[in-house]
Hints:
The protein is of the alpha+beta class. It is 49% helix and 12% strand. It has 12 helices and 9 strands. The protein is globular. Residues 1-23 are annotated as: Disordered.
Amino acid sequence: MRAAGGTLMSSTESAKPSKLPPFDASDPLGIDDLLGPDDLAIRDTVRTWAADRVLPHIAEWYEKGELPGIRGLARELGALGALGMSLDGYGCAGASAVQYGLACLELEAADSGIRSLVSVQGSLAMYAIHRFGSEEQKLRWLPAMASGEIIGCFGLTEPDHGSDPAGMRTYAKRDGEDWILTGRKMWITNGSVAGVAVVWAQTDEGADGRGIRGFVVPTDTPGFSAPEIHHKWSLRASVTSELVMDEVRLPADAVLPDASGLRGPLSCLSHARYGIVWGSMGAARASFESALDYARGREQFGRPIGGFQLTQAKLADMAVELHKGILLAHHLGRRMDAGGLRPEQVSFGKLNNVREAIEICRTSRTILGANGISLEYPVMRHATNLESVLTYEGTVEMHQLVLGKALTGLDAFR
């Protein structure tokens, strides 16, 4: 368009606000401007719930290594619509991927164990049934899982097979119309409190991993047990268990009919990893905010330590990585909502965001000094939790190799 006096002025220039908004230290890039009213409402609802129900107790739960009242918490999360929230139908909220990600961020800002409870319930156990199950399986399990009345778990990792699930030893053999399931799974979130387990096992229906099938196992089935794992120094406010299947007899309709081979469990993992991309930034944000608040108030040499150049350099670097990570999560969420998110892109997000989140926690600890190791502050709790998040659902090395294969076209896994 042509301005007065004949000079050229772009439409962008004409639309510029007369006054810039103030700088917001909690949202320095203005990422909230990318969110709609429903997105913000869901985020704020989950944040308020976590502040009321988790934050006043989480240090005690973590110190004791327990998550008391987990069944009640699951029902509350179900009432919020947070369980299986990105799934449609069967009592699920049908939220967008971005909205689910925002919920994961707020839950992990409270504690990784709480986000893990939601991720395993919705993105692994419920997602497996929703995507690969029969209509009868969906109707039987999903409504009660969405409400939190039934907790689910997901059995893939074994004592000797973590990054290489194709080598799993859990085995299911036919016995007439039934299946007999035998084996062990390890490091299973929600295992000891679950009413249903999605368990993956080898069968005789294919070779080289193609015979892997998923089974929906009611945990009260004879031969099934889930002893809880204790003495953890990470994810202490989380129920972690071993699953033991000792000739568990299952009917023919316990099989997930639309899943065969590793495609089934790996697609579930990809969905859960997406939540981690967001959730890890919640842990990082909580640690960064704790360090920033501490730096503003803690005085040394006659003034707040936040006024010293080295401290400001740490805060600036952490803010850059934190909000870059949130932008990355948001971008991946929009791609998922559009149906264009590839597993390699999820690996990109999980690799970057968890790695940077741990570094933010460690740097935050240095700003807090000795106070950083106290449970009066969230920093060390988040740092130790993220050590588990770094490993589960794909180690750093596995995601590096996923990206390496995508970039080069060469498979370095074997």
